[in-house]
Specification:
mainly alpha; 225 residues; globular; 0% strand
Length: 225
Amino acid sequence: MIEPGLILSALLFGLAGSTHCVGMCGGIAGSVAMSCSSSQAGGLTRLLTFNAGRILSYALAGLLVGLLGHALSGSAILTLWLRTLAALIMVVSGLYIAGWWQGAAYLERLGGGIWRRIQPLSRVLLPADTLPKSLALGGLWGWLPCGLVYTTLLWTASVSQHPGTGALLMLLFGLGTLPAMMTTALLARQLRQLLQQSGVRKAAGTLVILFGLATLPWQLWLPHG
């Protein structure tokens, strides 16, 4: 059974990281919502379908890194070290979200080669004026090089001991980004500007950092009496 703390952490990554997500994906999500001049309900359905594809791609990536986490799971001491790595990754992610340190951005370069092969396929799907095209576009867009997604995947690999756990954690991460992605796409520029304000980003990043420090297994570092 998955720990409640991991569920909360995955959702927190998504919610706090939304300040970053709207800059990466908010524009394309908005274009999906307004891709044709049919009813507002049709645009909303396509937007939901786009985000479903995006979130499912995160879950697939989580399944893959969950296999890695399963291979690394073993002794109790190794588990503690993996939890330490997970907590430190949360701190790095918080610094990235707040804009205080862009170390996670280096991870984006690793996915650049893959994205260059995927991106031409995404252009074929525009305008995303049907549900299948919206779903496929979201599925492709989920592989956009993103330091936040990559650090969340590393965190997932370090805490997952089963592929299903990895898939679920990344699914929850994606669901955490959904409120901001939906609202930003529908309300467009005003909300996007609010979420990208320095104060909002710093508050979200600080929250992730504090949560990472709270989950650090301090028994590894504190002196034993």
